[in-house]
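I had to read the description of the data format several times before I understood it. Each protein is reduced to its one-letter sequence and a matching series of backbone shape codes. The format is easy to grasp once an entry is in front of the reader. For illustration, here is how one protein appears when written out as sequence plus structure tokens:
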Amino acid sequence: MKLTIFTDIETLAPQRDCWDRVAGERSFFRYSWLMNWYKAMRTEGDQLQVIVAMDDQGQWYAVAPLFISAGKLRLLGSGAACTDYAGLFSCLDTKLHRKFAEMVSDYLADSIRVGGPLESIDSIELEGCGKLDESADYFGELLSAHGFSHHEVETEGTWKVLLPESFDQLNATFSKSMRRKTKAAQKRLAADETRVEFADPKTFERHWQLFEMLHQKRREFLGQPGCFANQNFRTFLKTATGELLDASLAELLVIFHDECPISSVLLLKSDNSCMMYQSGLDPEFSALEPGYQTNTAAIDYAINNGFKYFDFLRGDEPYKARWSTTRESILRRKYVPRKLKSQLKHGTWVIGRTIKNYMTGSGHPGEPSGSH
């Protein structure tokens, strides 16, 4: 097994099928998600640093989806995209995945040193890793063994529910008041005046317009600009969703009441999990509790399609805890090489964050990256 480094899209694009064979059914690792993010969201001076493990015949086994930005080595999909459970990924068994992590950490430690080809990098920042991700922990331990300082910040949590065989069984785990809400949602979804539509490649454009409109309506009602106010993010998410839908790794559904669209949700798939990435609703129909209808329809879809988990993903909104969920923290990890300039920069950053959080009353020298 040897490492190959890809530093530009033109060289990497023809290897898309190889990438996706490694990513498998994990939508957050697919080429559609990570490379469309990079194409739309990169800033001037950014450069790919995708590290791939392959054999002598060119068969891919593992990928470290990295890029360089402003002196930092980061994971593709970082920031506003909220790529959860991010990190190195492979199609290998645990033992060989650990070998890949060792090879990558050795390469980075040698390249980032003074005089190395990546000497300009002052930190490795891994955002979106799950706190329970043992492979991310191991990779961090390897970097620490190479002399990198470690700084860790908890952003927000993901919220996952273990699915039973039926929605009624899940309903039985809810509080009495919650059961009233979900049973009302089930009744409304079964009513003649309600229709649930799933997008397909032919109807994607129409459903996307409704989804975007409903998401923005909700955000504007809350006095927020909404993520689609950012044209680059809009381009990324629409393109990535369309390609994932073509690969049967995404679902976009819209709920209508008397032919009026009242709510919508974008679901992404990852092995045994159905993940709720983003949703929207029309506040004018609040009396119909469209949020409960959306969540009920989405979870019912996940159960009927054999998923083991339904995941609300990142964001600590209070409603998520009501759905019998378990929380997992999402982390931003920073590793600083043992170089004087890098250590001085990091020390200045820590002091600045400490002062800022003292002034604002926050409890740690970091800040949440935001929910979907």
Summary: The CA atoms of residues 219 and 226 lie 5 Å apart.
